[in-house]
Amino acid sequence: MRPSDIAISNYRSIRRLFMPIQPLSVFVGENGVGKSNLYKSLSLLRDAATGRITRTIADEGGLYSVFWSGNRRRGDDARLRLAVRFDHVRYSIELGFPSPVVAAFPGEPMIKSETIEATHGKKTILMMERTNSLVSVRDENGTWSQHKEAVLPSETALAGFSDGKGSPEIDLIRNAMLSWRFYHDFRTDPASPIRKPCLAITTPSLSADGHDLAAVLATLFTIRQDAGDLQDAIEDAFPGAELRAWAENGRCEFELQQADMPRPFKAHELSDGTLKYICLLAVFMGYRLPPFIALNEPESSLHPSLLAPLARLIAKASRRADIWIVTHSEHLMEALRSESSVPLRRVIKAKGATTIEGLSLGGEFRDGEDDEDDDD
């Protein structure tokens, strides 16, 4: 279940956007053009799978804060819409303000509708439809069942209906989105859990906050018993350095021996940039990668000399997972361009709305391949 395209409407600086998702999607743009809103909208979709989407919006200031920030006229569409397609199934959700007859807090985000559609050949079949608090589900035999007041306006049907026998498409989409992983930043202050030993538990992929970094690294050394690729990546970024990770007394630790230092440094002694790069190594080189990985400005706080090794790391990982990156670094973009044949996308603002250079309204990238004039 790999995502093939997404649609976003009325989210912050994004008025309307429909675009494909590729194995490696890289978006570069200046500050203020709304590139982080691309990342956040994907994260909101995952929150629909966990059931926390309305809480996340409330945490960001409510619908008044996250709704389309451009000019509005009376009668304009007043709903936030998100959708994602996986192979033959598509999930969409709409959120809006509470109606006068609904008991709700002022400005509270309300889920107005959700749908799941399955495509078989040229035929599209509605498998789940939620309108306000009424949820209708089509089972595997094609029979509809209705569930009135089954969910609150703040709850998603995607998270609330977990009976795969009732509608396997619900489980397919929810589980696919729950496996997505988002990395916005890693704390590297002295109190950060990344700098401390962690529980010795086999850990195939890094958590969003990186607290299990030592366990991810130790899993490669101790469980897989093959850290050759990891050591090659360390050598690429820090020539002459060697990384070691181990488990002892129920805790995992790691250290980095650098070529010009008489002794190895443990996590609490490493510089912020070095520690963050090791986190990125764990993101892209874990025992098992999440099927979809999104990162917001991974180059932040890294020395420019690390951008080329980072680009090589990303390009190699894109063979194992779909990767989505937003960045303002032209240097990282150029490094990725030299390491991967995937076109890199530039985020721009047009008439106050975030869009992608070369993206058509139908969700296709032109990539400078517009028809040329005939010679005849």
UniProtKB/TrEMBL annotation:
Signal peptide: none annotated. InterPro entries: ATPase_AAA_core (IPR003959), P-loop_NTPase (IPR027417), RecF-like (IPR014555). Residues 25-334 form the ATPase AAA-type core domain. This is ATPase.
